């Protein structure tokens, strides 16, 4: 057996032991003896790194005050930093399986995971990438709105708040919020933590590794400290691209016929080259904080940077040309490079022991460079390009987005029955993109009448000099957008007694959005045709919440709230006046036209009304903690995925109504000393309550409607997790055994599975670990997806576009993203 094989077999044997044990799931711990009030830290140095735990109870600040989960009268779950590490949760794509009420579609390293809370999504699933910059969910790093999926290094806890949060947070939220709370600089003492993993992945030819280091340095005792967390992640790929073109424009993308599209082995050797494990991830990340502490004052300056690279999608083509489960059918490598930067200032001070004043100012920048196989888009548009036997196309896009955010918040700290939170928020987002498509070899083909026949594009005088940047440049567009959002928000709470309280909240919001863009066909047109558009709107949302601690170990609460997601402008080049005039006259456009008509340029906000009741209890002498919530959400003016009349470019529009209702349950039990069993379960019924005509596009350009009662896509109706840890004392140290099982129910790819939509099968995932723990170091073995479950996590395009044949060419437009295969490895952590 090879060294690599021995490594894999040995780790399988080690982690297999834990199939009889249980592992720690990522749920919030609650102590049996957690205090009712969280004590203030004794010094500024201690406050710098205030613990997430009091006793063993996670302390959260979701209500803008430090409370334990048991004391927090809203639907919240929290995952501690220790649980993040033990469950190998490196970024938000891994959080969904462990968080009730949340589905996160992991489409690989080309983009962020798409977060769906309580089923509030009417968008088709994707097999490429997610983008949460205009999500129904508010994302935070500490107090700072976050527009990038930074790695979860040196994180104190992750808080997930379900339901609208616009009366407490600067970002208006439709469905909820997620807060990554970092560990803060400690001005009291020096510390260091280093951690690393080496692992093997099934269906991959590489060995993965990652590691990070955290250093905390007091610069002025009890006054100034610096903290840095830096890591590097290499996750090997498991998707091969066996049909990459050797010489685009000359090599034949489909050397055989419809019955044998890839031709003979000799045909494949003559035209293709194989790309191995192209969906790898290489990520460098760093977060650096400078903390200043004085009496009643804390100041944090943070700079974070992250860069991720990959060469392909974590997807296959559904076997359209005979490729396997871990093979992609596309003709070009599809590299992506994403980076994010965040610079923030957070200031918190107390005035006269009466009010905490918090000011946050942040600048965030996101950049992305993508290249993709564009062949099937042009085949689908039916421009007859495929009549050129060597036809293929690729696209290149460059995106840059930055946000400048300021927030001022006041939180009462005086004694008395009345408390309040009040704040003002301003956010400006600017986005710019350039997009280009290329068709190698097509100019030579179109110039030669003897080759191209009598098609409309024959007999041209296109540029054929390959060194010319305009060679084979088929389409180009640019988009520039700007969105300003302003908000005033606040909550008042009246404490009738220590155990009974009533809260009311209100938010006023206003936004203005603007777009400018243009497009042209370099093969045919002399330059860009450009236009601009704008939109604006304002509104109010509100909240009423009541809670009653019937006994110290039993609390009930109820909430009625409204939420919103701002509207905006579509990131599509507006149509020129000439195109608009032809459209209004009912005429046919000349050549390829890809743009947005005036009524397709913008979309309005959508709104929710949320009713929820819940309870928390500690039972059986505090050996069982139980949380239960039931909710009903009405959703109006839904932001829907649509498409432009010209070019079928994806846009957002408004229409329809829906409802989402269900329950969330979580528990923690400690039946025996050293044994902890925890789990969660969510049931969700999310469906339309109003017909939406012409919602979904299918092959050929026809539109299909959706109807009242149709289930919404993108989230599981049933999902849950269960697991446990058992700690075996070994002298002054401990040996931890862990196992976790997560269940994700079936997911629809389109509303009601209409228009070629489908139901993705449900699946279980299992992971396990054995860890030897001491005060100074930990060392262990782990395995994720132990049974190497093959799971489809998303789909791009629909079944009407699968197996399409156009002029004898099979389309490869359809894609299925797949979950990461079994991973087995060793890990270690050292602290001093």
Report on this model:
- The chain is mainly beta and 832 residues long.
- Helices cover 7% and strands 51% of the residues.
- It contains 8 helices and 47 strands.
- It has a 22-stranded antiparallel barrel.
- Mean pLDDT is 87; it is low at 1-56.
Give the helix/strand layout:
Blueprint: H1 3-16, H2 44-48, E1 53-54, E2 57-60, E3 67-68, E4 76-80, H3 81-86, E5 102-105, E6 114-117, E7 137-141, E8 144-145, E9 155-162, E10 176-182, E11 191-201, E12 207-220, E13 224-235, E14 241-245, H4 265-271, E15 272-275, E16 281-294, E17 297-310, E18 315-316, E19 336-351, E20 355-373, H5 375-380, E21 394-412, E22 418-438, H6 442-447, H7 449-452, E23 473-495, E24 500-520, E25 529-551, E26 554-565, E27 568-569, H8 577-584, E28 602-603, E29 606-619, E30 624-636, E31 639-643, E32 650-654, E33 657-672, E34 675-688, E35 692-697, E36 703-706, E37 718-730, E38 733-744, E39 747-748, E40 759-760, E41 763-773, E42 777-784, E43 792-796, E44 805-806, E45 809-810, E46 815-818, E47 823-831
Parallel strand pairs: 7-10
Antiparallel strand pairs: 1-2, 2-3, 4-9, 5-6, 7-8, 9-10, 11-12, 11-47, 12-13, 13-16, 14-15, 16-17, 17-19, 18-46, 19-20, 20-21, 21-22, 22-23, 23-24, 24-25, 25-26, 26-29, 27-28, 29-30, 30-33, 31-32, 33-34, 34-37, 35-36, 37-38, 38-41, 39-40, 41-42, 42-47, 43-46, 44-45
């Amino acid at each position: 057996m090879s060294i690599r094989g021995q490594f894999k077999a040995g780790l399988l044997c080690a982690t297999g032991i834990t199939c009889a044990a249980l592992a720690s799931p990522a749920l919030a711990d609650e102590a049996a003896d957690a205090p009712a009030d969280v004590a203030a830290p004794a010094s500024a140095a201690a406050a710098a790194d205030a613990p997430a735990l009091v006793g063993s109870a996670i302390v959260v600040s979701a209500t803008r005050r430090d409370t334990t989960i048991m004391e927090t009268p809203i639907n919240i779950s929290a995952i501690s930093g220790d649980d993040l590490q033990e469950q190998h949760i490196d970024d938000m794509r891994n959080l969904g399986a462990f968080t009730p009420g949340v589905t996160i579609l992991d489409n690989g390293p080309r983009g962020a995971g798409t977060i769906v809370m309580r089923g509030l999504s009417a968008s088709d699933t994707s097999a490429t990438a997610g983008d949460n910059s205009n999500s129904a969910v508010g994302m935070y790093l500490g107090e700072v709105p976050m527009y990038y999926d930074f790695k979860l290094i040196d994180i104190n806890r992750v808080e997930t708040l379900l339901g609208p949060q616009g009366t407490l947070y600067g970002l208006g939220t439709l469905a909820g919020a997620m807060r990554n709370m970092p560990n803060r600089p400690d001005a009291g003492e020096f510390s260091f933590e280093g951690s690393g993993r080496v692992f093997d992945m099934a269906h991959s030819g590489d060995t993965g590794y990652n590691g990070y280091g955290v250093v905390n340095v007091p610069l002025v005792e009890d006054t100034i400290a610096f903290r840095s967390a830096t890591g590097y992640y290499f996750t090997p790929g498991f998707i091969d691209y066996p049909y990459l073109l050797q010489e685009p424009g000359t090599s034949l993308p489909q050397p055989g016929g419809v019955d044998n599209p890839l031709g003979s082995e000799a045909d494949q050797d003559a035209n293709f080259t194989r790309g191995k494990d192209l969906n790898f991830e290489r990520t460098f990340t760093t977060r650096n904080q400078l903390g200043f502490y004085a009496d009643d004052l804390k100041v944090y300056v943070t700079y974070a940077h992250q860069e991720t690279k990959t060469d392909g999608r974590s997807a296959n083509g559904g076997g359209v040309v005979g490729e396997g489960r871990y093979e992609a059918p596309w003709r070009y490598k599809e590299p992506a490079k994403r980076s994010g930067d965040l610079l923030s200032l957070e200031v918190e001070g107390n005035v006269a022991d009466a009010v905490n004043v918090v000011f946050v100012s942040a600048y965030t920048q996101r950049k992305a460079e993508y290249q993709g196989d564009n062949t099937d888009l042009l085949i689908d548009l039916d421009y007859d390009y495929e009549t050129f036997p060597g036809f293929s196309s690729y696209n290149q896009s460059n995106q840059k987005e930055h946000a400048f955010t300021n927030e001022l918040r006041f939180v009462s700290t005086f004694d008395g029955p009345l408390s309040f939170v009040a704040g003002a928020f301003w956010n400006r987002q600017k986005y710019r993109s350039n997009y280009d498509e290329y068709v190698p070899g097509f100019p030579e083909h179109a110039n030669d009448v003897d080759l191209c026949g009598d098609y409309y594009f024959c007999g041209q005088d296109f540029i054929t000099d390959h060194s010319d940047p305009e060679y084979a440049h088929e389409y180009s567009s640019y988009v520039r957008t700007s969105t300003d959002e302003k908000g005033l928000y606040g909550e008042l709470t009246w404490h009738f007694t220590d155990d009974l309280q009533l809260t009311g909240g209100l938010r006023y919001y206003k936004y203005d959005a603007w777009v400018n863009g243009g497009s042209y066909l370099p093969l045919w047109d002399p330059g860009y045709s450009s236009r601009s558009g704008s939109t604006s709107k304002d509104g109010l949302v509100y909240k009423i919440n009541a809670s009653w601690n019937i006994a110290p170990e039993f609390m009930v609460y109820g909430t009625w709230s409204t939420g919103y997601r701002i509207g905006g402008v579509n990131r599509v080049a507006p149509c020129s006046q000439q195109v608009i005039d032809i459209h209004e006259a009912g005429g046919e456009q000349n050549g390829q036209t890809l743009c947005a008509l005036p009524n397709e340029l913008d979309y309005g906000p959508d709104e929710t009304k949320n009713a929820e009741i819940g309870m928390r209890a500690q039972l059986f002498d505090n050996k069982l903690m139980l949380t239960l919530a039931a909710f009903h959400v009405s959703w109006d003016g839904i932001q829907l995925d649509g498409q432009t009349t010209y070019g079928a470019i994806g846009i957002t529009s408004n229409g329809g109504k829906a409802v989402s209702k269900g329950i969330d349950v979580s528990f923690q039990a400690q039946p025996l000393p050293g044994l902890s069993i925890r789990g969660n379960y969510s049931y969700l019924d999310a469906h339309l309550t109003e017909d939406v005509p012409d919602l979904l596009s299918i092959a050929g350009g026809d539109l299909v409607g959706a109807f009242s009662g149709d289930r919404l896509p993108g989230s599981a109706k049933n999902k849950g997790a269960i697991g446990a840890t058992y700690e075996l004392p070994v002298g002054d140290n401990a040996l931890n055994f862990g196992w976790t099982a997560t269940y994700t129910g079936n997911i629809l790819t389109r509303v009601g599975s209409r228009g070629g939509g489908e139901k993705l099968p449900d699946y279980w995932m299992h992971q396990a670990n054995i860890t030897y723990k001491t005060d100074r170091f930990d060392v262990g073995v782990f395995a994720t997806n132990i049974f190497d479950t093959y799971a489809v996590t998303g789909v791009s395009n629909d079944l009407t576009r699968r197996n399409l044949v156009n002029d004898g060419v099979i389309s490869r437009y359809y894609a299925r993203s797949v979950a990461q295969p079994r991973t087995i490895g060793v890990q270690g952590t050292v602290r001093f």
